[in-house]
Design a protein that fits this description.
Blueprint: H1 43-57, H2 62-78, H3 92-119, E1 126-131, H4 137-149, E2 153-159, E3 164-169, H5 178-196, H6 199-204
Antiparallel strand pairs: 1-3, 2-3
């Protein structure tokens, strides 16, 4: 009796191997994605920086706009702006009032300062402290920027925790006095809030909802 027979239950070496599962389809080769050159900030911020560049040059031309956009791209690429949460509301009427009044303030202040220079009038400067009514870093920065862009006023210091701006006024008499200079900063902030702030942000600043200052303040007689 031959001893080459396999033992009961042992695998048979001569038996064909079970069929391997057939591939479902051709193997896909994963290629690394190329990094996309995208701006590190929003298009709104780029448009804002471009507008500031054009305003600083004082000449609205295609070359100035393109140069401003390039500068904005380079600045935001090298030093990206921190992301600030925005949960406001866009009000076309409020935005229109904001833009028209800001442009008028820039033109009027430029003419007044030019006239002072021609008259060789010695200005009486002062630094005022303005406590803003909103509690948002976004509107603090926006108010400081717009106040500084109007000739005759420049923000020299801003306290984020207290929402306070320290502003140098070029000439107190030209601004209509200290109280008038103080009030103009708060009015600028109010126009910003009524253009972009949500109802809760307006209420937090003490303003009644609405796109214009005619809505009044909360609790104040209208």
């Amino acid at each position: 009796m031959s001893s080459d027979a396999p033992a009961p239950g042992a695998p048979n070496a001569d038996a064909p191997a079970p069929d391997a599962p057939a591939p479902v389809g051709p193997a896909r080769r994963t290629l690394p994605r190329r990094p996309r050159l995208r701006p590190r900030t929003s298009w709104g911020a780029l448009a804002w920086l471009t507008g500031v560049w054009v305003l600083l040059w004082g000449d609205l031309t295609v070359a100035n706009a393109v140069a401003g956009l390039i500068v904005a791209l380079v600045v935001t690429w090298l030093a990206p702006l921190p992301r600030a949460p925005f949960d406001g509301r866009f009000r076309p009427g409020g935005v229109l009032r904001l833009v028209v009044r800001f442009a008028a303030d820039v033109v009027v202040a430029s003419v007044q300062i030019a006239w002072m220079v021609l008259r060789r009038h010695h200005p009486t400067g002062a630094v005022i402290r303005v406590q803003l009514r909103s509690h948002s870093d976004t509107y603090l920065a926006a108010t400081a920027g717009m106040v500084s862009l109007v000739p005759g006023s420049i923000v020299v210091e801003a306290h984020r925790l207290t929402g306070t701006l320290y502003i140098h006024v070029f000439d107190v008499d030209l601004a209509g006095g200290l109280e008038s200079a103080h009030r103009s900063v708060l009015e600028q902030e109010e126009r910003l809030l009524r253009a972009f702030a949500s109802r809760d942000q307006l209420a937090d600043a003490g303003y009644a909802p609405g796109p214009s200052a005619r809505a009044g303040r909360l609790g104040a007689p209208r």
